[in-house]
Amino acid sequence: MFSYVAVRMGCLACLVLFIESAPSRLAYKPSIQQVTALRTARAAHTATTLPDGKVLLAGGMADGGGSLASVELFDPAANRVEEAGSLADRRIGHTATLLRDGRVLIAGGYNGEYLASLEIFEPAAHRFVRAGALSEGRSGHTATLLPDGRVLFAGGVGRAWTFLSTAELFDPATGRSEPAGSMSVPRESHTATLLADGRVLVIGGHAGRRQQMEVYASAEVFSPAFRRFDAAGTLGTARHKHDAIRLDDGRVLVIGGADRTDRRFFDTTEIYDPRTTQFEPGPSMANARYKIAGTSILLPRGDVLISSGARAAEVLDLASWTFREVAGHFPGAFHFATAAPLPGGDVLIAGGYSDENQNTAGIWRYRQ
């Protein structure tokens, strides 16, 4: 017959054994750690997660200025980078879109000329091939993969430093790009986010330079069925060089950005609800940040990692609706860095430039 004392002591022993066998799990916290370095320091490049989990890092701005054609592959299993050939054209301010068949479409950019050229990376062959051209050269545009496999390009800057309101649709099946209407205003440094219903939400941005610059609070939605942009509410704060990401519930989180002077940048966020077509204030970040487009990542459990533009990354915890900094710091508040999700929920953060206009070759890994 077992006594109460014996049973109680046995349970305590099991608890002690559990704690001693899993200390790392109980004590574990998400962190940012540098794991390796790029072969070429770069900023304003692109980072695309391939179907095999590797990340393609392409082009960008060279240290001291100029554009790059070099390409690198990051292997998350070994935390190692290797050279992966070269783009056909040097590019900065281009876009890279993972197509439904696993290839990567590289579009536009600038290298002394505003580029209309397209090229595709074929992972199986490890090569870039020419893929036609946009209707017009553009840099600083957005590229959004639609549910039907086409890619929407919107805005940017074109020939003679002209700010573009035009949009076009590229069909990888035919290799052709065709006009897709125009936005209400020309936009650069805006964001474009695919909504759950297949439309694309375009937010903020600017047109003009220096004293003539106008930063927008306006938003509009592109409907693929009608090839038309319609008004979609107004931000509480006009902003450019921000980021935007769709949450699991279908709303869109708008993050940071700056005013027209770029001396005042924001720790604020806003939430767009497609059902009401209105923006509402979101929680404030721990750090103000800008020049961060494409570096916010939706984590597997629905939280959002904000990974660049400040010396600390932070996570929006949806359960508490608050931001918290992630352990580990970057050596600088790097701008125009890239971020890409890795298999298993980690995130790659690479490159960018500091407030002193110095590129970094650093590659960091967010570990959950």
Description of the structure:
The chain is mainly beta. It has a domain at 295-368. Helices cover 6% and strands 43% of the residues. The chain has two helices and 32 strands. It has helices at residues 4-21, 23-27, and strands at residues 31-37, 46-49, 55-58, 68-75, 80-91, 95-98, 104-107, 117-122, 127-133, 142-145, 151-154, 157-158, 162-163, 166-171, 176-182, 191-194, 200-203, 206-207, 214-215, 218-223, 228-234, 243-246, 252-255, 269-273, 278-281, 296-298, 304-306, 312-317, 322-329, 338-341, 347-350, 362-367.
Q: What is this structure's SSE topology?
A:
Elements: H1 4-21, H2 23-27, E1 31-37, E2 46-49, E3 55-58, E4 68-75, E5 80-91, E6 95-98, E7 104-107, E8 117-122, E9 127-133, E10 142-145, E11 151-154, E12 157-158, E13 162-163, E14 166-171, E15 176-182, E16 191-194, E17 200-203, E18 206-207, E19 214-215, E20 218-223, E21 228-234, E22 243-246, E23 252-255, E24 269-273, E25 278-281, E26 296-298, E27 304-306, E28 312-317, E29 322-329, E30 338-341, E31 347-350, E32 362-367
Antiparallel strand pairs: 1-32, 2-3, 3-4, 4-5, 6-7, 7-8, 8-9, 10-11, 11-14, 12-13, 14-15, 16-17, 17-20, 18-19, 20-21, 22-23, 23-24, 24-25, 26-27, 27-28, 28-29, 30-31, 31-32
